[in-house]
């Protein structure tokens, strides 16, 4: 009873402290759940605002121009805005004040499309709606407390994006308007001052990570282009429909980049919250297991003490053997010194398929896969008899004949005189681990979207093919392919359409290539092709490569139909015949890249051959 009492006190203390741990983590779990919900809610509101800003800008242009292209884009934007609104309503019912205002939107849209709405009323409606949504975001962001990103910076970023959206709408309207309104132009100047002030506030209150992310996503050249357009706008040199289109595209790019900064921060915050929840769940599971193990250990101790007092040596020996196999997830085999099986556990049966009565009394040779040489087994037994231990990966065979990999460790058990009397082998099936390793290798070498080779594997294969060409006098061609007008597809239809387009582009190009040719996605809308051993002379190789490029251009010039949209793009291709005296794969890529830019300068949708001077 004294021994039981001595072991009971630590167990009680362990349960008490683990309970305190569970209680504190439960509070953290509730906080992280609220934290994740606020981040999701903010992201949905932000997306709705983004779509409303685009709708406001297009509406401002249509009011003064009545342009059919703008009208077409505006109707598409209506669908995107409505989808964002539905997402908000489905996620939360905390915004009844928005429902009434959004019902009015149908009337606003109808008046606008029929020419019965003036610019002042249109801008007033959208500005008021976005203001209410921004206030809702401000309330939510006060709940976001992150070590890396703070809610204050996010609020300022949303305000900056709203002022930029207003500037886009007012300027777009004034560019297309026949008569300029000095009141609107002064308001545009005021908006720009507010934007600069918000940038300063954002820079001061943002964390280092937030500022770094802003610089990484918001392109300096986009801002420079927009500032250039602002200057010539005030000089009244922006007045054509094409000028308005360029202004809308550049400002939309800049606003979208800021939106992406906000989305990236919110996604990071959400991931942090989810990771915290996951970690806390692990603590809960670990604590429960700890409690169970503590109780089982206590009961097991009582059982052992009782056995030590009441059982004879034979029963004690059987308990020692059973202790090795008790509740292990690994397969365990106990043999005598000659390798005859004496005992196995349930995991052995689960992995190999052999029941205990089918293996006991036989040697472990029944599991041999015949995939290892005699020398392998000789080295194993030599090390085992010398050091008493061996471990490594080995292939064995199940009862049904299936060969599988396992991780095996064997230990020798010696008596008082140091003689080996038994062997204990422990192993587990590593088939899933091998599969995971193979999958990891595939993911590291292939493009996640198209399944094509990525840049890393392309460089490796290019090096291999260049070496083969030098050894066997082969002539290869390297094609650097850049899609024309792809960026406008993303801007017009969204990134999900752009992704589907890249998939269809890769499929079309793959259908035009031979099995031995190599197709890879370099990055973004850039692809590369290695045409392997295409001719016996460089002149013939050039003709073959040019013909193949033309077939690719013709294929990619055909319409792509994605979600009911007919999309037209082209391709600019640079050709490099190799190997050459440079014998450097980076030079091969650079030369093809230069040739591709020649195609761009010649009007796109063409191919150019790099000729060394």
- Terminal Cα separation, in Å? 96 Å
Helix content: 55-70%
Low-confidence stretches: none
Number of helices: 19
For the biggest β-sheet, the strand order reads 2-1-5-4-3
Mean pLDDT: 86
The number of strands is 12
Radius of gyration: 35 Å
Instruction: Write down the overall geometry.
Output: flat
Largest sheet: 5 strands, antiparallel
What share of the residues does DSSP label as strand, in percent?
A: 5-15%
Question: Structural class per helix/strand content?
Answer: alpha+beta
Give the gist of this structure.
The protein is of the alpha+beta class and 613 residues long. It contains 19 helices and twelve strands. 66% of the residues lie in helices and 13% in strands.
Overview of the structural elements:
This protein is of the alpha+beta class. It contains 19 helices and twelve strands. The strands form three sheets. Strands 2-1-5-4-3 form a five-stranded antiparallel sheet, with helices on both faces. Helix 4 packs antiparallel against helix 5. The model has no long low-confidence stretch (mean pLDDT 86).
Question: Topology of this structure?
Answer:
Elements: H1 2-65, H2 68-91, H3 96-113, H4 119-141, H5 151-176, H6 182-205, H7 208-217, H8 220-234, H9 241-310, H10 313-325, E1 331-336, E2 341-344, H11 346-352, H12 356-359, H13 374-387, E3 389-397, E4 403-414, E5 420-429, H14 431-445, H15 455-472, E6 476-484, H16 486-493, H17 495-511, E7 518-523, E8 526-531, H18 538-557, E9 560-562, E10 565-567, E11 570-578, H19 585-601, E12 607-609
